[in-house]
Amino acid sequence: MSLGRVLIVNKSFPAAGLKLLKNNVEPVVLMNMDYEPQSLPDIKQSIKGFDALIWNTKHKLTGEILDLAGPQLKVVSTMSSGTDHIDIPEIKKRGILLGNTPQVLDDAVADITVGLLIAAARRFKEGVRELESGEWKYGVQWMVGQDIAGSTVGIVGFGGVGQAVLRRLRGFDVAKFIYSGRSDKPQAKGLGAERVPIDQLLRESDFVILACPLTQETRHLINADTLKTMKNTAVVINIARGEIVDQDALYTALVEKQIFAAGLDVVTPEPLSKDHPLVSLPNCYIVPHLGSATVDTRNKMASISAQNVLLALQGKPMLFPC
Ligand SMILES: O=CC(=O)O
After folding, report:
1. Residues 238 and 257 in one domain
2. CB under 6 Å to ligand 1: residues?
3. Ligand 1 test: best mutation among 84, 109, 287, 299, most atoms within 8 Å of CB?
4. Could you state a single Gene Ontology molecular function term (predicted)?
5. pLDDT on residue 192
């Protein structure tokens, strides 16, 4: 007997998760990608009557959509670590279970963080542009960047990703690791990181790494005022959520050299237009939200989201309940 009706929102859901589901239910896959304009109307039109959703889209799961789904809906799993695209009070109000897919992406996101950090600090984008435009004019002061060795690295949000970043950067002879966040992390002592207030972190860090969830407290944490408190040699890396940074303020800070450079895996909105002012800046290195985009990580995320809904439909605890 089938455990229930499961809707997967996004046609690119990896086969590893689909296979697990198909052993137990007949999943319906919504044949959209989340960036297609038609995807939200399609979701609204198709969602009625399902017992479980795999919400593999960046569209916000609102009370309105939950109402369209109907009162039989028992469980939702994201295929993401972040849950800022889910209206959690509306989910809880209806007694719907929610799961997500953290931890398995920590290594992949930490790799991208280190890549962005080196690219921004060592001016990869400017260097490649000069090469491609035939402007390679080698000189001792040409294209000089910032050192990681001897630096202070400040990590905002010291969860799994933040800690994986620290473990990688230990090999670069960083002088000091500091972090800020809602609570003391027991792992910090062993990793050699000290918790400091956020204003101290922004003031003292050579590299500011944003690895925190998007909340009311972290929205526009990086803004015109906080950017002014940073070193003018500072490099800001955002692998968390675009809205943690006020992009207009970041643009001004980068143009006016209030800070040295930025490396962004996440921006607002996504996808970002190629005409956005940040895209043209030589000291802003942007990649299109590639953090967890490795074959193995995405397969694991799909498997976990499938297991989350299958377990919940059987009345068992999910692998990662929120
Ligand atoms: O951004 C990616 C995630 O939250 O998994």
Report:
1. yes
2. 80-82, 105, 291-292
3. 109
4. hydroxypyruvate reductase (NADH) activity
5. 98
